[in-house]
Design brief:
The protein has helices spanning 11-22, 43-61, 63-69, 81-90, 95-116, 119-139, 150-167, 173-188, 199-253. The chain is mainly alpha-helical and 254 residues long. It has a single domain (37-189, 197-243), classed as Rhomboid-like (Rhomboid-like fold), CATH 1.20.1540. Helix 6 packs antiparallel against helix 9 (199-253). The radius of gyration is 26 Å and the shape is elongated. It starts with 10 loop residues before the first helix and ends with a helix.
Length: 254
C-alpha cells in the first residue's frame, strides 16, 4: 500500500536526524595546545638563535670581543655585568655547542611564544636564563666562567613541562606521567658525562623554569582555561560541520 500523503515514506530518516540534532554533542578532549600555531610565533626564538650565532662567529674571529663576553666571579659585580651575562649566555664555544642548544631551543621557545605569548618568551624565560647564568657563576670558583644557552634551554624545558601537565588536564594522570617521564628520560637526564658541560646550570634552569610555570598558571589560569574551552568548542564545531554530510550519506546510500 502506498504511503499516506501526510506522512512521507522516509519520515523515519528525517525524524532520526532531528533527534540527533537535539542531542548535545560532548566537547572533544583537546586543549589550547591542539591549536595550530602561527609561524610568526617563532620569530623571537629564531631572532635569538640568529643573534647568538652572530655573537658566536664574531667571538671566534675577534679575541678581544670574546674576552669582553667572558664573565666570572671576579667581574660579576662590575657595572656592565648584566650585559656581559647576557652576552656570555648567547656566545658559544663552537658550532657544535651552538647547534646542540639551538636545535632544541628554537622549537620549544617558539611553542612557548605561540601558546603562552610574548611575555613567556622572550620576556620571562630569557630573563630567567640570565638569572640562571648568574646563579651558576656565583656557585663556581671566582676564576671560572660560563658560556652558552643550555641554562636557558632548561629554563624553557621546566616552564614547558609544568604548563603541559596542567593544560593537558583532559588526559588521564597516568598518561601525563608517562609522557613527562619519557621526555625526562630523553632530554633531562644526561646519557654521558662531559667535563665541559655545566650540569649545574641545567638543573638550576630547570628549577627556575618550573617555578615560573607554576606562577604563570596561578596568574593566568582563567585565561588559559578560557582558551582551552575555545579550542574545544572550535573542535566540536569543526566535527559537527564535517559530520552531517557523512551521516546522511550513509543513511541514503549505505
Amino acid at each position: 500500500m502506498p504511503a499516506a500523503w501526510d506522512e512521507p515514506a522516509d519520515a523515519d530518516l528525517f525524524d532520526g536526524d532531528e533527534d540527533e540534532a537535539d542531542e548535545p554533542t560532548p566537547l572533544p578532549d583537546v586543549s589550547l595546545l591542539s591549536v595550530h600555531p602561527s609561524p610568526w610565533a617563532f620569530f623571537w626564538a629564531v631572532l635569538y638563535a640568529a643573534l647568538s650565532g652572530i655573537i658566536t662567529i664574531w667571538a671566534s674571529w675577534d679575541p678581544a670581543f670574546r674576552a669582553s663576553c667572558h664573565i666570572n666571579g671576579y667581574t660579576l659585580h662590575e657595572w656592565d655585568a648584566p650585559v656581559r651575562l647576557l652576552a656570555s649566555m648567547m656566545v658559544h664555544s663552537g658550532f657544535d655547542h651552538y647547534l646542540g642548544n639551538m636545535i632544541l631551543l628554537v622549537p620549544f621557545a617558539g611553542f612557548a611564544t605561540a601558546f603562552y605569548g610574548f611575555r613567556a618568551f622572550p620576556v620571562i624565560l630569557v630573563t630567567l636564563g640570565v638569572v640562571t647564568h648568574w646563579l651558576t657563576i656565583l656557585s663556581y670558583p671566582l676564576y671560572m666562567g660560563l658560556v652558552g644557552s643550555s641554562g636557558l634551554l632548561f629554563v624553557v624545558f621546566g616552564f614547558w613541562l609544568v604548563l603541559y601537565a596542567w593544560v593537558e588536564s583532559h588526559l588521564s594522570f597516568p598518561k601525563r606521567v608517562l609522557r613527562l617521564s619519557g621526555f625526562g628520560l630523553l632530554m633531562l637526564i644526561p646519557h654521558s658525562y662531559s667535563p665541559t658541560t655545566s650540569y649545574r646550570a641545567h638543573y638550576i634552569g630547570l628549577g627556575l623554569g618550573a617555578v615560573a610555570g607554576v606562577l604563570f598558571i596561578l596568574v593566568h589560569r582563567k585565561s588559559l582555561r578560557a582558551r582551552t574551552l575555545s579550542a574545544r568548542l572550535a573542535e566540536r564545531d569543526a566535527r559537527q560541520n564535517r559530520g552531517p554530510s557523512r551521516r546522511i550519506s550513509r543513511r541514503r546510500w549505505g
